Amino acid sequence: MSAWFISRITASHRGQLITTAVVSGMIAAGAVISFQTARRRYKVHDLKASIPDISQEHVATKLTEYGAAADVFAPSKEDEHSMALAVRARQGDYDDDLILEQLARNRVFLGDEGLSKLRSSFIIIVGCGGVGSHCAAALTRSGVSKIRLIDFDQVTLSSLNRHALATLADVGTPKVHCIRRRLEQVTPWTHFDCRNELFSKKTAARQLTALDGHAPDFVIDAIDNIESKVALLHYCHSHEIPVISSMGAGCKSDPTRILIGDISASTDDPLSKATRRKLRALGVKDGIPVVFSGEKTGPGKAQLLPLPEEEYKKGSVGELGVLPDFRVRILPVLGTMPAIFGLAVANHVILEITGYPHEYLTSKARDKMYDGILGSLLGLEERLARSRGEDSLGLRIPITQDDVGYLVDDVYRGRSVISGLSTRLCLTRWNKPEDGFVHKRTPGQKNTLLQLKDLVCMTKEEAAEHEKEILKGDKNLEDLYDTKVIDAVNERIRKEEIFER
């Protein structure tokens, strides 16, 4: 039937014209499609051919499928003018008297010799986020003439709450170039060596090398990734390169707790704790100065929570990170704290390079008070042991000075839980200890089974009455305190158990 129909159509002149038009259209469409396919293949071939091979001269690091920040950006007229002035200044076309006038306050503070050392120094900053950017700004304004900036990341909108120099116009550009562009407008004579790269153990030797024959006078660690941080600190320690490390500013809010000391003394900082553990495995126990905070988490404070269970169910959690082994959660950061950390780091570097005398406090000003509270707590445990017929000679307690400071300042806010008074404070057991609370199973050692959750903060007068009526007497807590006080203590103990875990 179909053959008969086709033969009828083609037999007529009109049918032949229609058939010819249809066939011609099909041939033309096929030719266009073939041309477009060939053109696309040639473009893809040319694009692939334009990508250079990876070599020693061309370093590439695999990030996510989205890649790293691009080095290409469109400078503004102001940027172009600043860059041109910076080029001329670095070539010597800038009056030295103007530089000294700009650095006049540093000059009278450090002296001519000290300022000269600072001006001729070469500093490497690894990590150009909140801490690194403030550190770079302070060092540049103080007169450092050569700074190498190393960071693989780009400026994001969330960077603007803590970055020293980034603006909305910088979002999407590499952090190293953002810092260079802004600081060239302040000190055009400073030479910035920008490395838009990821720091790692494999690249350490190349990234920490000399600049124009000048070995680094100091390396600053402002990295927030533990693996990279450990690699940097271990390399510097092994090669005797002066280095200082910034520990965690996330979840911190108390600037009075920020300290500078050896990494072996930074016991209260979680990031320092993890870094110190890994360095110890590599044979590095001390000898690295760090800026850290002794502030501990507490009720109502920001903290890094575990990922929700639903995120684990979606698949590999590691794919959520920018890079393998990088954190996959947003860290709560108060914008002022990274700035204080960065300025403290810069201050240390300036004093070290110029030889300016400096001695940091190795302990908190309240240490004497903590020692007194610790002593009175030991006395309480000895009295309780004797009241139970135990030998209290040589008795020890598993509580340290740091534990005392944590309970008094962070858990009880430096006030008595009974009256709210802040003077003559001490720690005491809340509940009567159970029989056998003195541990004597280890030969030659006696200690009480005391835990942080067992202790509350009171004034010495309140603690004396509490000891007489509750710990040694027959009264219950309800007989001595109202419901409000008991509920407040139970809530503090409950939260302390959570934060301790």
TrEMBL record:
All residue ranges annotated as the THIF-type NAD/FAD binding fold domain in the record: 105-363
Cellular component GO terms, alphabetical: mitochondrial outer membrane
Protein's cellular compartments: Mitochondrion outer membrane
Residues annotated as transmembrane: 15-35
Top-level taxon in the UniProt lineage: Eukaryota
Topology versus the membrane: Multi-pass membrane protein
GO molecular function terms noted in the UniProt entry: ATP binding; tRNA threonylcarbamoyladenosine dehydratase; ubiquitin-like modifier activating enzyme activity
Gene3D superfamilies xrefs: NAD(P)-binding Rossmann-like Domain
This protein's record includes keyword Ubl conjugation: no
Keyword DNA repair: no
SUPFAM superfamilies documented for this protein: Activating enzymes of the ubiquitin-like proteins
Family, as annotated: Belongs to the HesA/MoeB/ThiF family.
PANTHER family: TRNA THREONYLCARBAMOYLADENOSINE DEHYDRATASE, TRNA THREONYLCARBAMOYLADENOSINE DEHYDRATASE 1-RELATED
Role: Catalyzes the ATP-dependent dehydration of threonylcarbamoyladenosine at position 37 (t(6)A37) to form cyclic t(6)A37 (ct(6)A37) in tRNAs that read codons beginning with adenine.
Protein name, UniProt field: THIF-type NAD/FAD binding fold domain-containing protein
Lineage: Eukaryota, Fungi, Dikarya, Ascomycota, Pezizomycotina
